[in-house]
Every structure is written in C-alpha cells, then in structure tokens.
# Entry
Amino acid sequence: MPGEYFVIKQRGDVRQVAFSVLVLAALTACGGSSSSNSSATPAPVTSPRGAVEQFLDAVADSNVKKMGMLWGTSAGPAAKTNQPPDWERRIVVMQAYLRNEGTAITGDAADSADRHQVQVELRRQLCTKTVPFTVIKLAEAGKPGRYRLPRPMIGSGLDFSFSGLKTAVLTLVKNEKPEPADVARAFVDAIVEVLVAKCARALEAAGLTRLVVAGGVGANVQLRAALDAESARRGFDVFYPEPDLCTDNGAMIAYAASFKILNQTAHGFTVKPRWALTA
# Structure
C-alpha cells in the first residue's frame, strides 16, 4: 500500500518549545553553532529511521524548508499545512537544539503499525542527551473523506483488482494538486473497505466465524480498526499477529525457495506469468 512516506510529528504545545529553549541553553554551554539557510525538497522515505536521518541532515545543513517538509502535525508537513502557525519559529529552536558534533539513532520502537518512537543520541563535547522523535505514516496524517476513490469489484464475489483504483489516483494527481497525505489516506481507505467487504463475504460463504489476518497488510492500523468494527457488527472473531510479525509473504516464499535451490530440489510445477486464480 502507499502512504509509506513518513512525517515527524511535533511533540506537545508551546510549553514544549519553551522546554527546548531551556535545554538549548544548557547544551550551548558545551559549545555549538549554526549556519546559513538553504532550500531543498526531501526525497521520499520509507521508514521512520529514514525520516529522522533526513531531518537531522536538514538540521546539519540549516535547511529550514526541508525540516518543515519532514516535521509537522497530524494534518501533514508544517511547510505545507502551516500547522502549527509558528512552525518556522519552532523549527529554528529545534535546529539550534539539535545541532551537535555528533548524532546517532539508538532506537526505533513501534507504538503501532503507523507510529514509531525513534531515539536519537546527541553528542557535544562531554554532553550527551537522548531525544525521542515521534514519527507517523503519511496516510495516518491525511484527512479522511477529503477524496473519494473508487472501490473496485467491491460487490462482485471474492476476486480482487485494484488497477482501476491506481488509475483513479493517477488521474487525481494529474488534474489537481492534492496533498499527498490526503491522497494516501483516500487510497488506504478505499482498499480497506474492499478488503473488509471481501473478508465478510468469504466468512459468510464458508459458514465460518473466525478470521485470521496474516502477511504485511495485517500491520495496517486502518484495516485492523475496520475489521474490528465489522466483526463487532456481524458477530465474528478476528485475529492478528503482533505488528512486528506481520511480514510480507514474498519474503517467506523466497526464504523457502532458497532451501530448494541449495538442495537442488525441483519445485514440481511450471511457472506461468499469468496464473489463473482457479489454478
């Protein structure tokens, strides 16, 4: 699924900025400086660690614009949403606070599938401090309902096809200039609605009352919430692995295949580029 672009969420209110200023004063006593501002756009990143790394690079370059594209609120990047309204002042404060002789990411823990806490160690001469960054997925930051995308094949059996949905996204992006977070949220919402409908229909057709969700898609927060709501409404049970165990099935298949290759074992079937769903 798309929406893998992360944004660092601002922590707290104005009192948090005041606290940062106080810490800055303590760190400044250990040395430190700032440099001139420049302009750049961050490259898309696909992990919380990557978002923080880009943000710290922007801090080192005194690149306020890039910092504003990687930091913000649940509405999205501050430089695009202008939230919080004083985001540039806050960025400058954070820049001075975070500029150090050395930085190192020391931890990355998931609060949920779409929210991480990344720990960064700041080093300046004899001073060391660990700072937490809250990182969220762009799809979580998007506004629900801002765009309504098609739900392909939602009413037809158990087959899937999302090609029409991808075309709808391409058309939307070409014809308008939508906020990436809002598009990502609309895309995820469309897929989730289809998946929930298909799961409920499959349980009904099979006469079963228990659903197990596995694979990488099982880590999606919106999907879990929607399935939980549907299970409560229809009276079936739904089970999920822990998010860190929701890995892509392709990795498991490749791992199993590697043993067959090492053992020179034939797979016993002929691979077809367009395998029928009924095969």
About this structure: Residues 180-206 form the longest helix (27 residues).
